[in-house]
Amino acid sequence: MRTSVVRRPVVIVGLVVAVVGLYWFQPWKLWVDETVREELPTAAPAPSDGPTASADTAPPAAAAPEVLATGSFISHEHATTGSVKIVRLADGSRVLRIEDLDTSSGPDLRVWLTDAPVKEGRDGWHVFDDGEYLSLGGLKGNKGDQNYALPAGADLNRLTSVTVWCDRFDVSFGAAELRKAAA
């Protein structure tokens, strides 16, 4: 009878620890994929001060997006592949575009633009929160193509890398160095 009195609190504590552990680590996310297929956004051309278009003239075509920088993901904590580019749209806004992303899902994944150098191996896993970084929001999906609007004040001369950052465990799943596009 005495062992059941001791056993009950141990079982309750064990269950509480298990529930907290499951919430914290969310291991099921390692087997659940979310694929996103966003198109590159388009922006209307800036309005001109000239005469308005008549029925005889076609509206001006939107300017092609200008690629400002590109990069390819390397793996850190989890195998990560895909490419990244920063694009300026016709209206002057800028977008970070991730294409063909393939990484693990995880708890609290973010897309960060950072000033940290991209390093291979374990040396690169934890460097992205050491300096300046700009969170562009939660990762929309662990697979596919997705877009993140850049704030107008984002300085691409200082912020030269992108990471898929796990905010819960302060670790990079994968990162890409941004190289300026040839003019």
Helix content estimate: 10-25%
The ordered H/E elements are HEEEEEEEEEE
Rounded mean pLDDT score? 85
Poorly predicted ranges (pLDDT <50, ≥5 residues)?
none
Give a count of the beta strands, DSSP E runs of length 2 or more.
Answer: 10
Bin the strand percentage.
Answer: 35-45%
Counting DSSP H or I runs of 4 or more residues, the number of helices is 1
* Terminal CA distance: 81 Å
Overall geometric form: elongated
Structural class: mainly beta
**Biggest sheet record:** 10 strands, mixed
> How large is the radius of gyration?
23 Å
Overview in brief:
It is built from 1 helix and 10 strands.
Descriptive tags:
mainly beta, ten-stranded mixed sheet, 1 helix, 13% helix
Give the SSE map.
Layout: H1 2-25, E1 35-37, E2 66-75, E3 81-88, E4 94-102, E5 109-114, E6 133-138, E7 143-150, E8 161-166, E9 171-177, E10 179-180
Description:
The structure is a single chain. Helices cover about 15% and strands about 35% of the residues. With about 180 residues, it is mostly beta strands. Strands 1, 2, 3, 4, 5, 6, 7, 8, 9 and 10 form a ten-stranded mixed β-sheet that branches. The chain is elongated and about 80 Å long. The termini are far apart.
